[in-house]
């Protein structure tokens, strides 16, 4: 089964992708994570994309589709893909169709997380993660139980994404509205879109997604 998680920045795609991965024979393919890894590694690619990401703009369609192509090569035929943060434009949506068709795969579900944009800015600008295990936290909604200590792994180092500031978040949302939301009709025509309320708790959203995957 191959699925897309779609929704504006901060909608919870990454969290839900990890939960799906933990419960199914499926692998999260996050272009944002791939690009952040490239930036961190200091590779030429990383240097090219860093400024674009810091501004909240989209990197080139060819580049992200090439990243996805590589990952699909590594994915066994029995493993499902959870596309997270990809596709983000019509051109990427067309590339994804080709990349899947070349491998005899096809999309089963597109799950849109619907959220209130004002709440998103609040969610995103407060979020941080454990540098060791990746557990997510929030300045106002979910602080570690013991100050400066990760609930999950006991780590003491935390990190924030450089693009999680208000100005960049507004640009990321504008990009979503202008370029990403318009790809939904492509999938609507195929009858594979499910819309769920992304403002509920992470558990409630997860339960909704599980229901869709069982259909
Ligand atoms: P979010 O959904 O929270 O904005 P992501 O981690 O998916 O964050 O993406 C972070 C940044 O990486 C984006 O703002 C953009 O610059 C770049 N990026 C990620 N995926 C894509 C993509 N499919 N196409 C173009 N740029 C992308
Ligand atoms: Zn941790």
SSE blueprint and pairings:
Layout lengths: L1 E5 L6 H11 L2 E5 H11 L2 H12 L5 H14 L5 E5 L5 H13 L4 E8 L2 H9 L1 E4 L5 E3 L19 E2 L6 H15 L3 H6 L3 E5 L4 H13 L1
Parallel strand pairs: 1-3, 1-4, 2-3, 4-8
Antiparallel strand pairs: 5-6, 5-7
The protein binds adenosine-5'-diphosphate and zinc ion (ZN).
SSE-based structural type: alpha/beta
Secondary structure: helix percent: 40-55%
Please give the count of helices: 9
What strand line-up does the widest sheet have? 2-3-1-4-8
Explained architecture:
By secondary structure, this protein is α/β, with parallel strands linked by helices. The protein is 48% helix and 17% strand. It has helices at 13-23, 31-41, 44-55, 61-74, 90-102, 117-125, 166-180, 184-189, 202-214, and strands at residues 2-6, 26-30, 80-84, 107-114, 127-130, 136-138, 158-159, 193-197. The strands form two sheets. It has a five-stranded parallel sheet, with helices on both faces. It has a three-stranded antiparallel sheet with strand order 6-5-7. Strand 5 and strand 6 form a beta hairpin. The longest helix is centred in the C-terminal third of the chain and has 15 residues, at 166-180. The mean pLDDT is 95. Bound molecules: adenosine-5'-diphosphate and zinc ion (ZN).
């Amino acid at each position: 089964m191959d699925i897309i998680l779609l929704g504006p920045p901060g909608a919870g795609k990454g969290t839900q992708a990890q939960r799906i991965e933990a419960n199914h024979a499926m692998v999260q393919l996050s272009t944002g994570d791939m690009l952040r890894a490239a930036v961190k590694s200091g590779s030429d690619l990383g240097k090219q994309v860093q400024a674009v990401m810091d501004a909240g703009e989209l990197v080139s369609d060819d580049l992200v589709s090439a990243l996805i192509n590589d990952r699909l090569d590594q994915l066994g035929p029995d493993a499902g893909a959870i596309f997270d943060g990809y596709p983000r434009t019509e051109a990427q949506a067309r590339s994804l169709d080709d990349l899947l068709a070349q491998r005899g795969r096809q999309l089963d579900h597109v799950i849109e997380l619907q959220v209130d944009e004002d709440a998103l800015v609040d969610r995103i600008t407060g979020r941080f993660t454990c540098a060791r295990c990746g557990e997510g936290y929030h300045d106002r909604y979910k602080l570690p139980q013991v100050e400066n200590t990760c609930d999950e792994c006991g780590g003491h180092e935390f990190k924030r994404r450089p693009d999680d500031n208000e100005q960049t978040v507004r640009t990321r949302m504008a990009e979503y509205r202008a370029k990403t939301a318009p790809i939904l009709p492509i999938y609507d025509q195929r009858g594979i879109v499910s819309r769920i309320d992304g403002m509920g708790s992470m558990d409630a959203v997860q339960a909704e997604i599980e229901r869709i995957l069982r259909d």
